[in-house]
Amino acid sequence: MIILLHSSKTMRPPSSGTRPTGTPVLVDRAAELVERLRALTPAQLSRVMAVSADLAAKTRDQYAAWTPEPGTPAAETFVGDIYSGLRVDAFGPAERRYADDHIRILSGLYGILRPFDGIQPYRLEMGYRLPGLNLYQFWGASIAEQLPTEGPIVNLAAVEYSRTVTRHVAAERVVAPKFLTVDPKSGQPKFVVVHAKIARGAFARWLVTERARDLTAFAEIGYVYDEALSSEREPVFVCAEFGGKGLSVRLT
Asked: Were both Cys, which of 62, 91, 120, 241 would link to 71 (CB 3.0–4.6 Å)?
C-alpha cells in the first residue's frame, strides 16, 4: 500500500532537531527546476503565486540559497492541517520506518518525497502557472514511475498534486477517501475544507499506527464509514461532531 499526501506552502524547521534519513529520489530534477525558477523576477513570482512583494522576494531568496543537500525531514518541516492530523512527531521508531516505506508526499519542487527525506525551504505549488514552465509537463510520468507497479494507492492528496500520479496508473488501484461533516443546520453531511484536511492526515496516521488494511474501519476524530454514500473507489466517512479541533490553530 502507498499513501499519497501533498506538501504544504508553509514550512518550519522542526524544533526537535531530527536529522533526515534519506535524500529525495528526484533531487537532480529539483535542481534543474530551481535553475529555471531563479530566472524569475520577484514581480513574476508575486503574480504567479498571488503573494505580496515581500513574500515573493523571500521566495526568490529561498531559490537563490537552495542546494540539493539534505536539510530537514519533509514531514516534520511542512506545516498545515494535513500534517497536524498526521502528527508525525509522535511516531515511534517502528512507525517512522513504516511511514517511510508507505507514505509518499507529492511536491511541486521535489516531485515525490518519503516523509523523512531531507529538504530545503521552498515555495512552489504544483498548480502554479509559471512563465514558460508547465510543472505537469516538466514532471510528466517521472513521479508515478517512483511508485510500485502494483498494489493499492490511498490517495489523500489534493487533485492538483494527485493528477501527477492518477494520470499514469490504473484507475482500479486508486482509492480516494472522502471526509464529510454533518451540518448542524441542515442535518446533512457536507464538505468542510479544514476538517477534511485534518482528517486526511489523521487517516494516514491511522494507516501507519494500526497497519490498517480494511479502510472502512477508520473511526478517528469522530468519523465513521458511511456505506450508503460510498463507492468501491471512494469510501466516505462522516462525522456528526468533528473531533479534531485541537489539531489545528485555525480551529478552537
From this structure: 120
